[in-house]
Amino acid sequence: MKVQEIKNLTGNNIMCMCIQEKFYTAGTNDHYERLLNWVNKASVTPTNIYKIAVDIYYHTPLEYWEPYGYSREEALEHIMFLIGKRITISYKIIKE
Description:
This protein has helices at 11-21, 29-41, 46-58, 72-86; strands at residues 2-8, 88-94. By secondary structure, it is of the alpha+beta class.
């Protein structure tokens, strides 16, 4: 018997996070929709989480980060941490 771990992240997860955190206020509806659609198709990997974070970072006004004193890297790490909290994990038993 094997156990497979399945990680899932949806555009809806990202949309809820952006609303809650007040991210993506400098992006257009087209940019936002493109991101959410891409998330729905992308697999959950560290590289893809980074790509999502970069997109969110560049569509969130720089003034948002000023009170925190975050560098660009720290802001991206913070966004990736928040994305990670939105990932759901399920398991599937595979009979051999």
